[in-house]
């Protein structure tokens, strides 16, 4: 692996490790309600983005996005999906559903594949269909094990899958920092209004007698933006197949946090359901790696592109 690839892998590992220990971080914020944590996360993420944009003199990127109504509308929808994802995740952590939240990020790749079929008319290969089928069986088993559909997991997977789909559609024209900044700009007025209302009605904890709570709430901006920037830096340097393998580190760590540190119970039936999810992911990952190898082999076997003879080349521009 070349130096750029090694740096990219390090960035990716750091991003997924940070996301993996989020249950412990948000559990430390449990004295604030999920709504207040969400509001502060949006507010302080906006502040961090403003600092970075100012330091790197990148405000022009945000203005360029705002000048394209279609991109702005797509990012507004993305910000709504992201707010749902963040809010449900914080609720899950602080209500004893960390394991179910980890399931949401395990099944997210399967949801992404399904969204590609339903919304983009993509055609699945046989292993992908097998993975989707096993994943559906896993959801059925877990529904029986929980006594209800795993709503937290499904909401997280669908909201993040939709968010990823939007980012994929506009990713070529909008950079990671400009995209994240625009998303927070869209919803920060609601966050500011919500924080002011909570504090004015005595329901906010930002100015509690314990100053550490305010510091923790303010740190949500750094905790949110830094992993996203690490991920963006990794995605530019590391093959998609490698990023696809690294992504399973986050839900695995979240699962361990729930079982080992937060005392959540995992009956045998749920382990069986998770086992089916892991089988589905093995099938999906195997298909992705095989497809990547085929694409690489096809590029190597492709005939070389003929060079234009010098006499036929167009004259240089003046």
Structural write-up:
The protein has 318 residues and is mostly helical. The protein has one domain. It is built from 14 helices and no strands. It has helices at 3-20, 22-28, 34-55, 59-66, 69-94, 98-120, 126-146, 151-170, 176-200, 211-218, 220-235, 240-246, 249-261, 268-301. Helix 1 (3-20) packs antiparallel against helix 11 and helix 3 (34-55) packs across helix 9. It is globular, with a radius of gyration of 22 Å. Residues 305-318 have low confidence and may be disordered.
Q: Main attributes?
A:
mainly alpha, 318 residues, globular, disordered C terminus, 14 helices
Helix count? 14
Chain oligomer state: single chain
What is the typical, i.e. mean, pLDDT? 88
Q: Helix and strand succession?
A: HHHHHHHHHHHHHH
- Main sheet specs: none
For the terminal residues, how far apart are their CA atoms?
Answer: 42 Å
The outline comes out as globular
Report low-confidence residues grouped into runs of 5 or more: 305-318
By secondary-structure content and strand pairing, the structural class works out as mainly alpha
**How many β-strand runs?**
0
Helical residue percent? over 70%
Query: Rg to the nearest angstrom?
Result: 22 Å
In total, the number of domains comes to: 1
- Percent of residues in beta strands: under 5%
Outline of this structure?
By secondary structure, the chain is mainly α. It contains 14 helices and no strands.
